[in-house]
Amino acid sequence: MFALTTLVYPCLLAGLCLGCGLLIDRLSGRVLPGALLAPVGGALLIAVSQLMTYDSSLAPATPTAMVALALLGYAVEAPRLRRALPAMRPGDPALWLPVLVYGVALAPVLLAGRPSFSAFGLLTDSAFHMMGADYLIRHGQQYGGLDLANSYGQYISSYYGTSYPSGADTLFGGSAFVLGLPLIWAFQPFNAFMLALASGPILLLARRIGLSGALLVVATLTASVPALVYGYELIASVKELAALPLVLTLGALVATSERWLRGPPRGVVAFALVAAGGLSALGIGFAAWIGATGVVLAGIVSSDLARGYQRAGRTLLLALLGALVTAAAALPTVLHLSASLQVAQTISTTGNAGNLHAGLRIVQAAGTWLTGLYTSSPSGLAAELTDAAIGLTAAAAVLGVAHLLRRGRHSLVWWLVAMLALGIGLTLAATTWVDAKTLMLSSPIVLLLAWAGVAALSGNLALRVLGFALALVLAGGVLVSDALQYNATDLAPTARYDELASINTRFAGRGPTLFVAFDEYSLYVLRDLDVGGPDFLFPPPALSDLTGHHHGYPVDLDAIPPRQLVAYPLIVTRVNPAASRPPSAYSLLWQGSYYQVWGRLRDARPALYHLGLHVDRLAACRRIERVGRFAVIHGGTLVAAAEPRLVGVPLTGAGYLDGGLTLTPSASLHFRVPSSGRWELWLRGEVMPTLEVSLDRRPIAKIGGQLDGNEYNPDTLAPIPVRLARGPHTLSFAQAGSILAPGDGGTASVSSVFLAAPGAGAPQRLIRVAAGDASSLCAVRLQWIEAVRD
Predict the structure, then answer these.
(1) What pLDDT, on the 0 to 100 scale, is given for residue 445?
(2) Most CB atoms closer than 10 Å: which of 342, 557, 568, 754?
(3) Residue 357 has pLDDT above 70, yes or no
(4) Would you state the pLDDT for residue 255?
(5) Is the pLDDT reported for residue 419 higher than 80?
(6) Strand partners, 693
């Protein structure tokens, strides 16, 4: 699966985009430079996937339609390809630079050597896009049949049923379905590919600003992956990453306008498709970038009209054809224009800052940000170096504007300046969330202008050394910033999601399913089980008002009234002996390393009363007796779940803070065991870097890559079997291996450590007693007690 998602899938995407690009170039009169074929082809694929999924009956055929269009492009341009292939040079940057950008973008996953995705837990919007991409290709843009009584249906309806932009999702889903890939593992490669797609127009623009040789290569690489863009790629912000190559392609088309603006009107088709692709991927807000580009093109056309290069009638025809193609290619957006405007307005005015605790700084668009996370600020020496690099980048950009004007690149410089003005305007007028997106889309523009400054210095023999020094600052600042983010990013736990996927296959169609652990990616992985959870952003309405259940926080099964569980034939829980098992109406159907699946017994009636007993022994006994009296009055009997014997390990030490103990670079815990024998050591926490676990200075295990939904729901790691003598012991943790591996700068902490008898993770026995014998249960440690009908 790793090779299929990270190597084969991007090759498929490249083939689809290039084939569709050749087809559009043929329709446009062969006006496209080679560097723009793939991004223009990507725009066509977005348009086709949107149109196919608009009709639910055609949606499943979307992958076939995408492949067919690409093959048609190769067929009609076969003679051209036969002539071009012998002339291709392996050293041409246009051939290998996208591969390099892809490798840098996907470095955390590639070097981890397993299917995964980065920035796990930082922003879970990617979970919704996986879910949406799957749904749109399977069912199309029709939402009437969704089950709104559970979380899965509410997520789809609330996002995609409101005309939320889905162009990136349909492109992603349609292309991944060609190979039948799990979207959870194809998602990061798709985002890395979209960033690599941006390198084509960036390469063309870098050549236009006067760069060549090694400077051209380094400029293209760094303008493709500035720190903020790289951060957005790590969190897989798919809408913005799909829009980025389209924004840059607009600029590249401005820079090469002489190839299509003065020829036959059909030359505008490529520009119109890029505009439509942006509207479908980013929403109606992309019109701001189209409008700014249109102003620059209007200036070019006005100049051409004044010089007699073209006639007014032909210009009007070109504009009309462009508008028609754009509207047709973005038809779902156009047909629901009012709803699309409402979504754009909601996004642009929302007070929800997502994962941004504070707004990003406008200087982050300069490309250098020497910290492991773009949402935090550098400190100490890193802050001073960052400020210095940003200052030099700004000075280089001003010099770059002057250089381009002196070279006569007026249309290019005005487009670059227009993009910067648009970015600054939106940043000043919009909310924190939109500001961040705008800064990300503007960052490659800033870098290109700065590299134009390098070109100005390098062209002067006396200043060439200064130019190379400036190039070193630009390249070093970007690449070191990216390396810091690469090292700090957390990677998704592959084995745990593979186990969830096996549950989806095993129990497909047997939902609705109550998912107790908080993990929004489960909504995609368990897509065939109609998942609901009171801790999700969109909880089932019947469970939304339960006391103590909040978005992102743990779910307490004991707090859910028995009658409200009747709607759920299945319950999925984590394997955790410290947590309560589901009520007596459920029996264990399946257990893996991470999850348990519980099924409601046939004809099981809800308990008359259910009470959790995580209280002190004296208070528990009083509650047990009250439940017994309740059962006597209602003619019922008592059922109780025994609690396994657990021995807690105290969390102490210098790294202890807010309920968790930091494990890196090392930590030690001291505890006592009441009796000799075999035990299981259980850890709950978030552990990304690989750690060596030692007991009394003897290595017993290596752990790493174990993360859960968020900090409020620490991951329960698989137990470590140990043999212990009665008395004191020392448990130690130390970081193992290289600190340069992906995620080695990421999270490593535990919130609880305990010992249990072997097999404690299996379901504990249920105890049944007559209602009048309730006091006999006071001697037993219980998870809960129920009054049930006889």
Answers:
(1) 95
(2) 568
(3) no
(4) 93
(5) yes
(6) 701, 733
* pLDDT tens per residue across span 267-323: 999 999 999 999 999 999 899 999 999 999 988 888 777 777 677 777 888 889 999
Q: Could you tell me the CATH number of the domain that includes residue 725?
A: 2.60.120.260
Residues facing 470 on adjacent strands: none
Residue 519 lies in a domain: no
Rounded alpha-carbon distances, angstroms, from residue 312 to 262, 270, 295, 305: 12, 21, 17, 7
CA distance 655 to 750: 10
Domain boundaries, position 690: 646-756
Name the residue type at position 94.
A
- Count of structural domains, the chain: 2
Burial category of 316 from C-beta neighbours within 10 Å (exposed 0-12, middle 13-18, buried 19 and up): exposed
Residue 787 is assigned to a structural domain of this protein: no
The single-letter code of the amino acid at 87 is A
Q: For residue 340, is it within any domain?
A: yes
- Alpha-carbon distance of 554 to 550, in angstroms, equals 8
Q: Is the pLDDT of residue 430 over 90?
A: no
The structure tokens listed for 453 are 């400054």
pLDDT digits (tens, 9 = 90+) for 728-769: 999 999 988 667 788 888 888 888 899 988 887 777 789 999
> b/e per residue, 764-777, with b = 16+ CB within 10 A?
beeeebebeebeeb
What is the pLDDT of the chain when averaged over all its residues?
90
Is 535 in contact with 556 (CB distance < 8 Å)?
no
DSSP code at position 365? G
Q: Is the pLDDT of residue 171 over 70?
A: yes
| Residue spans of alpha helices (H) in 610-726 | 617-633
Tokens 């007699």 -> residue:
308
Question: Which whole number is the average pLDDT over 231-247?
Answer: 95
- Residue 330 belongs to what H/E stretch? none
Nearest one of 598, 545, 552, 558 to 575, comparing CA atoms: 598
**Residue 597 confidence (pLDDT):** 97
Amino acid identity, position 11 = C
Query: 673 has which bridge partners?
Result: 727
- The predicted pLDDT at position 537 comes to 86
Q: How far apart are CA 231 and CA 219, in angstroms?
A: 19
DSSP 713: B
DSSP collapsed to 3 states, 714-758: CEECCCEEEEECCEEEEEEEEECCCCCCCCCCCCEEEEEEEEECC
Distance CA 74, CA 690 (A): 47
Query: Which residue, of 488, 511, 536, is where some domain finishes?
Result: 488
Question: Which residues lie below 8 Å from residue 116, measured CB to CB, with a gap of 6+?
Answer: 108, 109, 185, 188, 491, 492, 493, 494
Question: How many Å apart are CA 742 and CA 17, to the nearest integer?
Answer: 30
Give 33-84 as a DSSP string.
Answer: -GGGHHHHHHHHHHHHHHHHHHSTTTGGGHHHHHHHHHHHHHHHTHHHHHHH
Residue 398 in any domain: the answer is yes
Instruction: Work out the pLDDT band at 617, boundaries 50, 70, 90.
Output: low
- Taking Cα atoms as reference points, which of 24, 193, 26, 203 lies closest to residue 104? 193
Residue whose structure tokens are 């056309």: 301
Return the sign of the alpha-carbon dihedral for residues 661, 663, 667, 673.
positive
